[in-house]
Amino acid sequence: MSAAYKNMNEINGSLSVLVTGAGSVYGLGIIRSLKASVLPVEIIAIDTNPYSLGLFFADKSFIAPRAADEENYYMFIKNLCIDHQIKAIFIGSTAELPFYSRNRESLEASTRSMVFVNSPEVLELCTDKWLTMCHLSRCGFQIPATIRYPEDAGMLSSFIESAGFPLIVKPRFGRGSVGVVLAKDKEQLLESIKGKESLLIQEYITDEEQEFTVGICINQKGKVISKIALRRYLQEGVSIAAVSDSYHDITDYCAVVASTLGAYGAINIQLRLKDDKPVIFEINPRFSSSTGMRLLFGINEPESLIRSEVLCQDVIPGCASTGLVLRQYTDYYFPLDKILRPNIT
């Protein structure tokens, strides 16, 4: 059983937390949120790449072996957690989610560190976009009309007739916007599916101005401890601008969706509005690329998880401030002696 605290007075010194994948946009968002927290947090960051920006922002940083070398990686994480008395692990690398999901119970038992990751069942459901659509449909949530290719190739003509163009073609097991094609006519559609497998063909929800990213955090008891909906604008699959307004109906709707999944920790839901109703087209079982943006609206998801799961506090979801956040890349200077060498751990 992992360590937990009844109140702040039980904390001696700082709370050490681990952030993996420190160079990813997810890892950086987690680190920025932790640094902004009022809690006495010590951030320990790891990445396989010594030039990962998050390593330079953390209190302590280490070069990690690759998670694909599972036995070596497991021992590295176990020893790191024990040596630094780490109380919580945040995963900033999508590729590492399956490892932590499979090994969560073992790591928590051997290190007393809480691992904020969804179960293997939730990961499978959300990673397979067809299973996601089936689950949502069974639970009564609105989804885009969807067929598989090539499994449902015999339905293609009738699907085109009912859904009309444009259509979305996406990998069934893809990440973000990688491999997503907007087919504007039959010629483009046939070209985009030619010789390929494991695809989904979906109805295109036309109003790009009404696309939302919704963050929901759920504790081990199944209680929602954080929620926020942002109307977003994308560039190459990443949010570059976000608007927060009176989107309470959307956040409440997605909180119910996350609860039906049996989610734990962070869930990120993508949707568009059709006839003023949410239509969900993707669920990511992890922190979002907009985690740092959410912080600027007053929603600190990593802090909420620490308060609920490590400090055993009763966390009530806060209300996001209204406004606009714009994302732009920033350059940082560091002296050479700040660079970690790969053989130093």
SSE layout and pairing:
Blueprint: E1 15-20, H1 25-36, E2 41-47, H2 53-57, E3 60-63, H3 70-83, E4 86-91, H4 97-111, E5 114-116, H5 120-127, H6 129-138, E6 146-149, H7 156-163, E7 167-171, E8 181-183, H8 186-193, E9 199-203, E10 211-218, E11 224-235, E12 238-244, H9 248-261, E13 265-274, E14 277-284, H10 291-296, H11 301-310, E15 323-326
Parallel strand pairs: 1-2, 1-4, 2-3, 4-5
Antiparallel strand pairs: 6-9, 7-8, 7-9, 10-11, 10-13, 11-12, 12-15, 13-14
InterPro entries: ATP-grasp, ATP_grasp_subdomain_1, PylC_N
Domain ATP-grasp: 133-310
Organism: Clostridium rhizosphaerae
Characterization of this structure:
The structure is a single chain. This protein is of the alpha/beta class. The longest helix has 15 residues, at 97-111. It starts with 14 loop residues before the first strand and ends in a 19-residue tail after the last strand. Strand 4 (86-91), helix 4 (97-111) and strand 5 form a beta-alpha-beta unit. The protein contains 11 helices and 15 strands. The strands form 3 sheets. Strands 14-13-10-11-12-15 form a 6-stranded antiparallel sheet, with helices on both faces. The chain has a 5-stranded parallel sheet with strand order 3-2-1-4-5, with helices on both faces. Helix content is 32%, strand content 27%. It folds into 3 domains: 12-116, 3-Layer(aba) Sandwich (Rossmann fold); 145-203, ATP-grasp fold, A domain (Dna Ligase, domain 1); 207-326, ATP-grasp fold, B domain (D-amino Acid Aminotransferase, Chain A, domain 1, 2-Layer Sandwich). It has helices spanning 25-36, 53-57, 70-83, 97-111, 120-127, 129-138, 156-163, 186-193, 248-261, 291-296, 301-310, and strands at 15-20, 41-47, 60-63, 86-91, 114-116, 146-149, 167-171, 181-183, 199-203, 211-218, 224-235, 238-244, 265-274, 277-284, 323-326. The model is unreliable at 1-6 (pLDDT under 50). Helix 5 (120-127) crosses helix 6.
